[in-house]
Specification:
about 210 residues
Length: about 210
């Protein structure tokens, strides 16, 4: 318990600017949920997602805000972001202990889900900051940066790098095997591109899809 409290205090002090007050409270709850079934390894892997995701969101923030394509609240994460990013990871973490099936599969799902979210964040934020030409994934027509369903070479490469980084974090934490890193990278690539297709086709048709997760 002392380790959990020390970790919570560290996050509160060092990364308060990355989370709103309610976001921080929900992050504590998430951290405790992860620490139970996966221990420090699961907590640290999710923590690295927060670190990398927050850093990449801040890239060229002023320019993105001027263009109206930056994340709201200066990039601070609220509870909707916490659970939108890590609900699947939390379920996989719990299932790794509660399920009668192989826990290694759920640990892989835990890391892969976070790798996919980091890939999406890196692809979106770097694409908006550095993408020279962005294309709508469904038609490949040129569209402004920040358009739902838009992709760019720069953003796609950044997404791959993000998924590799998170996969390596999972490997370093002994949650997955070396082959699992590549599975995470593949899952992230498929997942982020499927999300881009959904964004391009359905985002403007349904208001609930326009919530920023």
């Amino acid at each position: 318990m002392n380790s959990v409290l020390a970790a919570i205090m560290f996050v509160t002090k060092k990364y308060k600017s990355a989370l709103t007050e309610t976001g921080l409270l929900n992050a504590w709850i998430l951290g405790i949920l992860l620490w139970g079934p996966l221990g420090a390894a699961g907590w640290a892997t999710c923590f690295m997602y927060l670190v990398f995701g927050s850093l990449v969101t801040k890239v060229k923030m002023a320019e993105k805000e001027a263009k109206g394509i930056a994340e709201g609240r200066g990039g601070q994460r609220g509870p909707e972001n916490v659970w939108g990013s890590a609900a699947t990871a939390a379920v996989c973490a719990l299932m790794s202990q509660l399920s009668p099936w192989d826990s290694a599969l759920f640990k892989l799902g835990f890391v892969a889900s976070l790798a996919t979210k980091l890939s999406d964040t890196c692809g979106s934020e770097i694409g908006k900051a550095y993408g020279k030409t962005t294309y709508l994934i469904t038609t490949l027509e040129s569209v402004p940066p920040g358009t739902e369903g838009a992709i760019s070479v720069e953003g796609t490469l950044a997404g791959v790098v993000g998924s590799v980084l998170l996969g390596l974090c999972g490997l370093a934490a002994n949650l997955i095997e070396p082959m699992g890193v590549w599975i995470c990278v593949f899952a992230a690539f498929v997942g982020t591109n499927c999300e881009s297709v959904i964004g391009a086709v359905f985002q403007n048709k349904y208001s609930w899809l326009q919530m920023r997760w």
